User: Which sequence fits this backbone?
């Protein structure tokens, strides 16, 4: 796949080893890259790689980004509030798991 091609549609079961670039992630979630960059800054998303141009996101990060979008919209959260809620949800999931 070249840089300008769109990622294949992610339907059905997400594959754990499928990696997305920042652009593919944002395109799939219908969001701006600036929002994803802010989520990385607040440690809501943790990409692999040192620089944004080299970042790779796991398929599960797409679901996490979409969840963050819903939480921000539904509860009118700012970024620091969103980061706190996401950390608490992660802790609850870990305790249940």
Assistant:
């Amino acid at each position: 796949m070249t840089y300008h091609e769109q990622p294949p549609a992610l339907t059905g079961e997400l594959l754990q080893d499928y990696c997305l670039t920042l652009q593919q992630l944002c395109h799939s979630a219908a969001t701006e890259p600036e929002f994803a960059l802010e989520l990385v800054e607040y440690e809501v998303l943790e990409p692999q790689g040192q620089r944004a141009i080299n970042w790779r996101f796991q398929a599960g990060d797409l679901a996490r980004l979409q969840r963050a979008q819903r939480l921000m919209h539904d509860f009118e959260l700012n970024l620091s509030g969103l980061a706190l809620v996401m950390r608490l949800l992660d802790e609850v999931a870990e305790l249940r798991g």
